[in-house]
Amino acid sequence: MQQISDYELELMKIIWANGGTALYAEIVRALEEKGTPWTKNTIITLLSRLSNKGFLKTCKTGFRNQYIATVLEADYQEAQTRTLLDKLYEGSAKGLVTTLIQKDLLSSDDYEDLRKYWKAVSEANE
């Protein structure tokens, strides 16, 4: 899966948070609410790049464009996590988790949530 820039990712997050589809006005409003208003040309350029990369398709709704995600957020997260694991940890998830724990990047709440998750998964697989 292709990588996207941080700015492109910002737009994708807005579209994913909106159920995988958004009108231009909804994107602008979400950017303004985040305190990051961009120019119309910047937004249109980034949306066009995302379409060219296969992350979005555009549908006309009257005179407005509706942007529809063609890549699920979970799929993008998985691909980026695999890239990170391969690049930094030679594919070892254990190496990543070890770093998170050793460098105090996991809060005790995070750790407890993961422990409960792993327990539930292992019980479901029994």
Description:
- The chain has 126 residues and is mainly α.
- Helices cover 63% and strands 12% of the residues.
- The protein has a three-stranded antiparallel beta sheet with strand order 1-3-2.
- The longest helix is centred in the middle third of the chain and has 17 residues, at 73-89.
Please report the first level of CATH classification, the CATH class of the largest domain: Mainly Alpha
Write the CATH homologous superfamily of the largest domain: Winged helix-like DNA-binding domain superfamily/Winged helix DNA-binding domain
Average of pLDDT:
94
The separation of the N and C termini measures: 34 Å
CATH fold name of the largest domain: Arc Repressor Mutant, subunit A
Outline of this structure?
This protein has 126 residues and is mostly helical.
Secondary structure: elements and pairs:
Blueprint: H1 6-17, E1 21-23, H2 24-33, H3 40-52, E2 56-61, E3 64-69, H4 73-89, H5 93-102, H6 108-124
Antiparallel strand pairs: 1-3, 2-3
Helix pairs in contact: 1-3
